[in-house]
Amino acid sequence: MKLITIYFAIVALSILTACGPETQPPMIEKGQRIAVRASVSMPAPLSATLAAPEIDRAVIVSPVEGVQLVELVDGVLEADVPLSSVSGLFFIRSDDSYAGYLSLGDDIDSLPTTKLQTGLEAIELGELTLSGDRFVPAQDVFAEQLPLSLVERAALAQSDNVLAALIKNADADNDGVLDVLTGSWYGLHVRYAVKGGEFGLAQTQAVTGLETGIDWARVQFRAYGAARPSTVGFTGPSFLSHDYYPGQVFSELNPMPPQDIQHHAEYSAYESLFVNGAPLGGVYKVKFQSTALAFELPDQSTAKDSILIPVPRVTVSSDGRLERVTWIFANRNGLPADPASVIAAGAKPGLQLKLYGTSASCATNNGVAFQTELPLTTSGEVALGCSIEWRAVRTVAFHYTDVYGNSYEITFLNRNSGG
Questions:
Q1: Are the CB atoms for 358 and 314 separated by under 8 Å?
Q2: In this model, does residue 92 exceed pLDDT 60?
Q3: In 81-92, which positions are buried (b, 16+ CB within 10 angstroms) versus exposed (e)?
Q4: Residue pair 411/193 in contact by the 8 Å Cβ criterion
Q5: Which positions ≥6 away from 69 have C-beta within 8 Å?
């Protein structure tokens, strides 16, 4: 097997912090790896003259490690992918044309390695059969190798549809050459501000369900390779107009400028203005130098149904002091889930708890009265260790980045707050 490294990059989306959105993105450490093996099966041609060129390469897209181009040997794929992460895969024919992408079913168009069967040394996909533009494994890998619950699969399916939009359209500039073959690659991520629920009057257990929804979101575009302009422009269903630019109508000729730009060693990131609610589905274009890059983003309005939420409960003393916060991960309907199946392991900062409010003894900073990092466990608790009145806490918030590079700020409003 010949492995050609196109680039190596550490990628993760900025998490909202007390200092606002313009912060350095969290770093994700390179972790262990696991082998993945598969053989590629093509439908029999109707005749010899109609036979398609053979599939001789696979492209592995990792939000953690970048992109690898792997040569197949006699139709067999053998490669290593990051453990406790996720990878998108698509295949290339010998004439450099796009052949299709890996799909595991349940709307998961990537390979999650966040939860593996005990003792598993390699992921055996077996024979991949092409159906339309999807390469589908012969066996149910969830039943035999990736023991994810239905709730966890739903969360991964929602998170991976942005990455899937990239691997399904690997020629974003529409020049007839796959981007990866020109030494370029583009990333797309979404930052969600989620209303997780609220603490009602005299309540110490947060309520989710109907209270859960997407408050606002921002789309981040990333460019890898040599071409990284000083700015870009956004157009698409959610970027036709904006209150920040009253009276303006945005189009390909007049795209919306980014709100935040960050240039890093491996990539440049350009983040849009916020959109109310979740991004609408449709074709989004990024004006990139003289080229319009096109990405078809699925509708994100249902994201609230599958996002994993750390549902908090607070312990309040008899004199009204907040003593500790406990949490359990679940979806909006209260079904529990393992956060390690979705949240990026090794992200710095990782899963965080923040209490927005004021305190005389806690180190209040930019409206944050208390913050700490939490373990990636299904449930847990943290003692504050400083004095803060429960009524002085306006919002209990959690922050995390998922394995696809999307980030989430999940807030719970405190109706008991006097601030």
A1: no
A2: yes
A3: bbebbbbbbbbb
A4: yes
A5: 3, 4, 5, 6, 57, 58, 59, 180
Segment 101-126, tens digit of pLDDT: 999 988 999 999 988 998 999 999 99
> How, if at all, do strands 122-131 and 309-316 pair?
unpaired
C-alpha dist (Å) from residue 79 to 16, 39, 159, 374: 35, 12, 24, 33
The stretch 225-233 carries a mean pLDDT of: 85
pLDDT at position 19 is 33
With CA atoms as reference, report the closest residue to 222 among 273, 249, 186. 186
- Six-digit token pair at 220? 């981040």
CA-wise closest residue to 66 among 1, 4, 114: 4
160, 239, 167, 155: which is closest to 194 by C-alpha?
155
What per-residue confidence (pLDDT) applies to 300? 86
Identify the three-state secondary structure at position 265: coil
For residue range 205-218, what is the model confidence (pLDDT) as tens digits? 888 776 788 999 99
The answer for 306, left when phi > 0, alpha when psi is -120 to 50, beta otherwise, is alpha
pLDDT at 48: 53
Q: Which two tokens stand for residue 120?
A: 């598993």
Evaluate if residue 45 carries a pLDDT over 60.
no
* Residue 216 tokens, joined: 């606002």
- Is 86 within 8 Å of 112 (Cβ atoms)? yes
| CA atoms in the 13 A half-sphere facing the CB of 217 | 23
Residue 116: exposure state from Cβ atoms within 10 A (0-12, 13-18, ≥19): middle
Does the reported pTM lie above 0.90? no
User: What's the CA gap between 315 and 167, in Å, rounded?
Assistant: 46
Question: How far is the CA of 73 from the CAs of 54, 57, 112, in angstroms?
Answer: 11, 9, 24
d(CA 54, CA 51): 9
